[in-house]
Specification:
Largest interface: A-B, 31 and 33 residues
Largest sheet of chain A: 8 strands, parallel, barrel
Shape of chain A: globular
Strand content of chain B: 25-35%
Radius of gyration of chain B: 16 Å
Strand order of the largest sheet of chain A: 1-3-4-5-6-9-10-11
Number of domains of chain B: 1
Largest sheet of chain B: 7 strands, mixed
CATH class of chain A: Alpha Beta
CATH architecture of chain A: Alpha-Beta Barrel
Radius of gyration of chain A: 17 Å
Distance between the termini of chain B: 12 Å
Number of helices of chain B: 6
Oligomer: heterodimer
CATH superfamily of chain A: Aldolase class I
CATH topology of chain A: TIM Barrel
CATH class of chain B: Alpha Beta
Order of helices and strands of chain B: EHEHEHHEHEEEEEEEEEEH
Strand content of chain A: 15-25%
Shape of chain B: globular
Helix content of chain A: 25-40%
């Protein structure tokens, strides 16, 4: 049976993990390659590395980081952040990534989705969408809006429509982050996730709001998510992916276990 | 020396990384001569079946047939497995190697009256593993492997393991020296490495 995926996400700046999942014995920052391997060993189904580096020097460091991380990582590995062209994507793939995640650059020039897919296959292109519900609308979920530039800039585009366009242009998966629920630890935005998941054929990865294993069970059930991104949950009682999956299995969710 | 065929379908890097990790020596090639003289052949690939047209254009099809007839161990991965069949509905005008009968078809849009998402992406389990499979030696039923694909090969007597998604399909195929896997062993953790190691050590 196809299982629901738990994806461990590392936010990286200038070659160091700055937030995201951290083990109990790692207080502050960590080495992305080392952490990625620890997450893989702890039962994560995939690793996502999001680069939030703003500087040119940092980009060079990123490729080195990707290379070091990928060298002995034998589960799917996605890299996102700052990929603006098919050339940027090619450099990340050459360094060892299996998929790239693109966000603002895809909104700015949607052709980029197909351009990367043409060389590396649709399965290698994840379109990340930062979404916020339309609070004053009669249907805040259907009219949820896409934001770019790290959530600072509204685009006027509706989330469900953009997800459908991304699929038509050849995206392999959608990574949907709810800005409303992100960081709140009160659960994912299941209504929005379900709306997007039902509108597209491709897998939808839910992100933002996890605070407990029950929240994951909820987004896999009611939210119809195919995968969920785990970040700060590991600070709050659940020790690692294996423990999370064990709880999910008890709740009747199909997960890769043993792993 | 394992000859790894490069037909510009997706990304060779991860397959090479895994083979090197297991201590295998590899050579990336597009040459029929290399394929004829190979001691082992790996045909990776992810993407569109149409990409396999390049194998015909580079005259690698005939070279592969000769190598297979001589007993050279062959492993096709993903589209590389599909190429072993007669073809795929994904690219009707491009023939496969025709080593195994039947064609690869797309997942149905619905299964058991429910919508079936496609592509099939993620970790799914291997079932009905054939006890005589050399490729899957030491792999237990229920072991998880990573998939990403929209077309699949049907079950036949050469099926070495199946996976269920919209019904059962061929997860691994094996007849003598000719083997293929629909999943990505290079991305399937320890289970995947076991399978690649089995091939490397044949």
């Amino acid at each position: 049976m196809l299982t629901k995926r738990i994806i461990a996400c590392l936010d990286v700046r200038d070659g160091r993990v700055v937030k995201g999942i951290q083990f109990v014995d790692i207080i502050d920052a960590g080495d992305p390659a080392e952490l990625a391997h620890r997450h893989a060993a702890a039962g994560a189904d995939e690793i996502v590395l999001l680069d939030i580096t703003a500087t040119h020097e940092g980009r060079g460091t990123l490729l080195d980081t990707v290379k070091r991380t990928a060298a002995t990582l034998f589960i799917p590995f996605t890299v996102g952040g700052g990929i603006r062209s098919a050339e940027d994507a090619a450099a990340v793939f050459d360094a060892g990534a299996d998929k790239v995640s693109i966000n603002s650059s895809a909104i700015g020039r949607p052709e980029l989705i197909g351009e990367i897919g043409a060389s590396f296959g649709a399965q290698a292109v994840i379109v990340a969408i930062d979404a916020r519900r339309a609070k004053n609308s009669s249907d805040p979920v259907a009219n949820a809006e896409v934001y770019v530039a790290g959530g600072r800039k509204p685009t006027g585009r509706k989330v469900v429509e953009w997800a459908c366009e991304a699929e038509q242009r050849g995206a392999g998966e959608i990574l949907l982050t709810s800005m409303d629920t992100d960081g709140m630890r009160n659960g994912f935005d299941c209504e929005l996730t379900a709306r997007v998941s039902q509108a597209v054929q491709i897998p939808v990865i839910a992100s933002g709001g996890a605070g407990s294993a029950a929240h994951f069970a909820d987004v896999f059930g009611r939210g119809k998510a195919d995968a969920a991104l785990a970040a700060s949950i590991f600070h709050f009682g659940v020790t690692d992916s294996r423990a999370l999956k064990s709880e999910l299995q008890h709740a009747g969710v199909s997960v890769r276990l043993p792993c | 020396m394992i000859q790894v065929i490069d037909y510009k379908a997706g990304n060779l890097t991860s397959v090479l990384k895994a083979l090197h990790y297991l201590g295998a020596e590899t050579h990336v090639t597009q040459s029929p001569e290399d394929v004829r003289n190979a001691t082992k052949i790996v045909l990776p690939g992810v993407g569109h079946f149409q990409a396999t047209q390049l194998l015909h254009d580079l005259q690698l099809t005939e070279a592969t047939r000769e190598a297979l007839a001589n007993g050279v161990p062959f492993l096709g991965i993903c589209v590389g497995l599909q190429w072993l069949y007669e073809g795929s509905t994904e690219a009707q005008s491009t023939d496969g190697l025709c080593h195994f009968a039947s064609r690869c078809e797309r997942f149905p849009a619905t299964y058991n009256n429910a919508e079936l998402k496609s592509p099939h992406v993620g970790w799914n389990s291997l079932e009905d593993i054939r006890k005589d499979s050399r490729l899957l030696n030491g792999v237990a039923n229920g072991s998880f492997v990573y998939y990403t694909h929209s077309w699949r090969a049907p079950i036949s007597r050469d099926t070495a393991a199946s996976t269920s998604y919209g019904g059962a399909f061929t997860a691994a195929v094996e007849r003598d020296n000719v083997m293929g896997v629909q999943f990505h062993p290079e991305k399937s953790g320890e289970t995947g490495l076991t399978i690649l190691k089995n091939f490397v050590e044949l």
